[in-house]
TrEMBL record:
It comes from Tetraodon nigroviridis (Spotted green pufferfish). Its main location: membrane. This is alcohol dehydrogenase (NADP(+)). It comes from the Eukaryota. Residues 16-292 form the NADP-dependent oxidoreductase domain. The keyword Nucleotidyltransferase does not apply. Substrate binds at H112. The record marks K79 as: Lowers pKa of active site Tyr. Keywords: NADP, Oxidoreductase. It catalyses: S-nitroso-CoA + NADPH + H(+) = sulfinamide-CoA + NADP(+); a primary alcohol + NADP(+) = an aldehyde + NADPH + H(+); S-nitrosoglutathione + NADPH + H(+) = S-(hydroxysulfenamide)glutathione + NADP(+). It is found in: Apical cell membrane.
């Protein structure tokens, strides 16, 4: 099986990338270096993660003349945050990510969420009662502004994140530059079968974040089951002599889903890329799909 997914633009996006969400300051740079050094060529970033500058420091050490990699060999994604949905803010937000990453262009720029927050410097603008201050800017207007980034050469392609099937279809129906990716939480406990089927029917690639489960979600209880610890998964992993994480990633790869597992541990970063030397049987694919509980 290919290690790339060909997007509707013709770009080849590596099927497995390194996620950088929730990677603590001081750890991200080393994680990116470890990933690039063991063969990763796909990095998933976002302005809201607050660590793009560190990712940029790592890229500066590995990309360019006389270094390990050429810019065109690495696929870099970033995301537009909710406070930057006003059309006049979109280009500035993109340029800010480019500056932090030390890049002249992004391979992919995603709208991080469909909802817009009130403009300003706060990441999560809140009212006195703690509720989020939303803006009435529609994601369609934000999308039109993102399309101009493609026209200006700042990004090669644009896409979505956390959009449902109806919202995705809304953009597909009006787009001049169609979305090439919809990045959503996806793992066997939240298999996203309907969304995946819809996206694939419209040539939108699904990328899974939290592909190993979302045990570190803020609302998680210690009693909540973890997909990585699911004994049924453990039994499959034993049969293939692979780690449970490798089985979860392979399941996504065989469904045609790209994945961006996050890790700051060099050995795990390397293991997460080693999912192209074996194949899950149809029965095991069905078994893992049966774990679904529509649970975030």
């Amino acid at each position: 099986m290919s290690t790339f997914i060909t997007l509707s633009t013709g770009q080849k996006m590596p099927t497995v990338g390194l996620g950088t969400w929730k990677s603590a300051p001081g750890q991200v740079k080393q994680a990116v270096l470890a990933a690039l050094d063991c063969g990763y060529t796909h990095l998933d970033c976002a302005a809201a993660y607050g660590n793009e500058q560190e990712v940029g420091e790592a890229l500066a050490l590995r990309l360019g003349a006389g270094k390990t990699l050429r810019r065109e060999e690495v696929f870099v994604t970033s995301k537009l945050w909710n406070t930057k949905h006003e059309p006049q803010d979109v280009e500035e937000a993109c340029r800010s990510s480019l500056t932090h990453l030390g890049l002249a262009y992004l391979d992919l720029y995603l709208m991080h969420w469909p909802m817009a927050f009130q403009r300003g410097k706060e990441l999560m603008p809140r009212r006195e009662d703690g509720s989020i201050r939303y803006s009435d800017t529609h994601y369609r207007d934000t999308w039109v502004a993102m399309e101009s980034l493609v026209d200006k050469g700042l990004v090669r392609a644009i896409g979505l994140s956390n959009f449902n099937a109806r919202q995705t279809g809304d953009i597909v129906g009006m787009a001049k530059h169609r979305p090439v990716v919809n990045q959503v939480e996806c793992h066997p406990y939240l298999s996203q079968t309907h969304l995946l089927s819809y996206c694939q029917s419209t040539a939108v690639c699904v990328t899974a974040y939290s592909p190993l489960g979302s045990g570190d979600r803020p609302w998680a209880s210690a009693r909540d089951p973890s997909v990585l610890q699911d004994p049924r998964l453990g039994a499959v992993a034993q049969r293939y002599q692979k780690t449970p994480a490798q089985i979860l990633l392979r399941w996504q790869v065989q469904r045609g889903v790209a994945c961006i597992p996050k890790s700051v541990t060099p050995s795990r970063i390397q293991q997460n890329l080693q999912v192209f030397d074996f194949c899950l049987s149809n029965d095991d694919m069905k078994l893992i799909s049966s774990f679904n509980r529509n649970e975030r």
